[in-house]
Specification:
The protein is an alpha+beta fold. It contains four helices and seven strands; from the N terminus they run H-H-E-E-E-H-E-E-E-E-H. It is globular, with a radius of gyration of 18 Å.
Length: 165
């Protein structure tokens, strides 16, 4: 009897936890970003993704994720994107502000970046790994990859996020 109660509790917990954050379905915003990048950089191929990781922003309601891939002349490059849909601009702003207090790993540096309402850039010394996280209204976007690619792709993404969302 006790085993059935425990299993029932676990199932209830799983059902309520997964209901709090909707997994990626169709995302009109991410679709616009993908189309924009396809126009600007047609050699890059986009593959939608699903993230089984914890929410990027606490309190987020849903997300969209994926990555672009480029392979040419034996070189492989990748840029990933994670779009977090947050209930309010205030929650998104609080999360972004908290980034300024996060410790930076050895060999990395973090700095404010000029994009959207606010943004941060973190990167390793040679720029082979970098991330731009930016907020525009209640949308938080994280773009990761090589520094040059990340800066361009984050710029494309920011242009597609509506000012008042």
């Amino acid at each position: 009897m006790r085993r059935i109660q425990v299993m029932g509790f676990v199932l209830l917990l799983l059902a309520t936890t997964t209901a709090l954050i909707k997994a990626q379905g169709r995302s009109p915003l991410l679709d616009r970003v993908v189309r924009s990048i396809k126009r600007e950089e047609p050699r890059w191929r986009f593959i939608p993704g699903v993230c089984t990781c914890p929410p990027l922003v606490s309190g987020q309601r849903s997300y969209a994720a994926g990555g672009w891939y480029l392979e040419e002349a034996g070189e492989r490059r990748h840029v990933s994107i994670y779009v977090s849909y947050v209930p309010s601009a205030q929650l998104a702003a609080e999360w972004m502000e908290s980034m300024s207090r996060w410790p930076v790993a050895e060999g990395w540096r973090g700095e404010k970046y000029s994009l959207g309402d606010e943004a941060y850039l973190s990167r390793n010394q040679d720029g082979t790994n970098s991330t731009v996280s930016f907020r525009k209204g209640k949308i938080v976007v994280e773009v990761s990859g090589e520094l040059g690619d990340v800066v361009r792709f984050a710029g494309y993404a920011e242009k597609e996020v509506p000012a008042a969302i």
